[in-house]
Amino acid sequence: KMTQQMRDLQLAQARKPPGPSSPNAAKRLYRNLSGKFRVNYTSFDEGSLAGRGEKEKLRKSYLFQSNAALFEAVELQDLDRVQELLKQYSPEELDLNTPNSEGLLPLDIAIMTNNAPIARALLQAGAKESPHFVSLESRSLHLSTLVREAEQRVNELTAQVVNEAPNADCSEKEKQLKAWEWRYRLYKRMKAGFEHARVPDAPTNVHLSVASSSSVQVTFWEPLSVNSAVVTKYKVEWSCSPTFSPLLGEAVIDKLKNLHFTIQGLVSGTAYYVQVSAYNMKGWGPPQASVPPFAIPSNWREYDGRAPRRRGQAEALDHLLGQVKTVHQHCVCHEPCKNQPQSRKHSVSKSLKHLFHPGSKFLKTLKRGLYLTAIFYKDDNILVTHEDQVPVVEIDDTYSCLLMQDFLWFTKVSCMWDEILWLRQCVTVSQSSCSCILQTRFKMLLAISQMQGLLGIQDLGQVFFEPVKDKQGNILIVTLKEVKTNQTFESVRWVPICKLQTSRKSVSSPEEPTALDTLLISVQDKLAYHQRSSHALSPGLYLGYLKLCSAVDQIRVLVPEQLPNILCHVKIRSNPNISREEWEWLQKMASVEEPVPAGPEAETSQNHLFQELQVAIKELMTLVNIPLQEAKDFRLYSQEVLDFGGQVSFLLLLPPSDDVCTAPGQNNPYTPRSGFLTLPLQIFELGEER
Length: 690
Description:
Organism: Halcyon senegalensis
Oligomer: single chain
InterPro entries: ANKFN1, Ankyrin_rpt-contain_sf, FN3_dom, FN3_sf, Ig-like_fold
Structural class: alpha+beta
Number of strands: 24
Protein name: ANKF1 protein
GO biological process, one term: regulation of establishment of bipolar cell polarity
Pfam family, one: fn3
């Protein structure tokens, strides 16, 4: 037993910060602490330690020093050093919630010295208070013990320094005395901070919203008071009674990075009251009721019992595709094509090495015709052939004018890269009876197969929203794909984009560049578009602006350049759900010509949504450069809420009926600022699905 105590003591001493911040205090203070404050370290097996590598020993020693450095930084109130350590090490590596020999945690020291910035930084990292302080009395007793022990040690060292003659030992005792005097002042400051602290005020801005048909969400802010101690946790309580008697449940929130909580498992159509209270080292403060005072779990679909628009659609399409495949399985057109070009021999390639194979059928130069090019990129590098050119294959050398319908058909095919062979077999018909459209689309499928075979990759990526053209009659359909893996390939090299652009020898004039030159000049813009089009919105409810413009062969939709797969939008709130009561209010607003806003004093979810919409509409009008006075003629789309995966939802703001879609030759009365694109509607729909 004595051996075990000595080992525990040695480990406890090893964990103390070196230097003035802990001058051999561990031995005396540890011996005087009650058992409940002692740290029960598990002794190491000597044989196991001997078997560990020197690297592991050095690592553990380094982490012990990091833990000591954190305690010292907190005691010295060095916020920058604390933040640096929290960023450099994980909470586990720092032993963030392991008490030192005085029974204290870094958070205990921060809150009892009332250092709010350091306390908040520790709380954000997951720090907790010492579990040994089970009551106010136990914390007060422990602080008194630390102060008394430190004072006693200061008196002893003072007497020794005064009575001893100057020598080396005396000089060492003077250093210890200064250190203990500093620690004595620290403990007194901690004790005074605890004694003068009071329970926290109630949290502020406690807002309650409906999260779904079975849950509500409460968000809140810290108490406004700066005189009380740092808040370390919150308690959320809910009940069906405004008096909160009886309580239906409660939850304690000690992870304070985001001050919100979702109460789940509730009954749809039942009113729930919620209140929140804060806690510091002096105890729980008074509760604060939410605004609005209650919420009823519901969803806008319950207003008319509407089923989700996309429910079962993906499964139905998969089933339909399976049926089509079954029908075509024994069809004559499903037989392998016999008259395949010789270049198809390369389609069995399973790697990228054919990019640099002398027999590759990638084109060096363009003639008048339609071509397919695949842009594969990784970071700032792009994949090229052995002739330092992006991979290009021919679709049709007699096709000099790409019809929009053919291009849009190609973009749909890009959703089925794995099914190209099957599609080819289905489209294969006798050339004599084949229409021009089918011939062109069959050649597109052949070109895709050739590109897949030469690259050894089926997924060619996303089709850029418009082809690249030149005055010589060349048309390039461009696909873009980012390679995120670190996989390396033999005989393949990635060329920096800037190097490819500067080293390429152009055969065209600057006034009339070829399609390939135009592609390389604008390749960074296309890669930026591809990356931005894959970004996702954060969860929440958004207000989107629907603006279309029509041409002879297509309809285009206005989108922001920074997020081209989403309509122009602003965020209304973080909660994506529209409750039944909110949707009912929106229906009433849409049914009258001059809506009367709810009174500002009304503490209802409908009034809160009204205020949020007012802010969002002003922000959206500024974004798309529309005078606010003209927004009075705009309408909210009241047929449904657009739902994207349950985490993102949209309300649509529509221009007047005559201005939703601008016809060819018609002046657009609303000209957006720079930073917007107009995409073909079908391209936008595909990007939205991705």
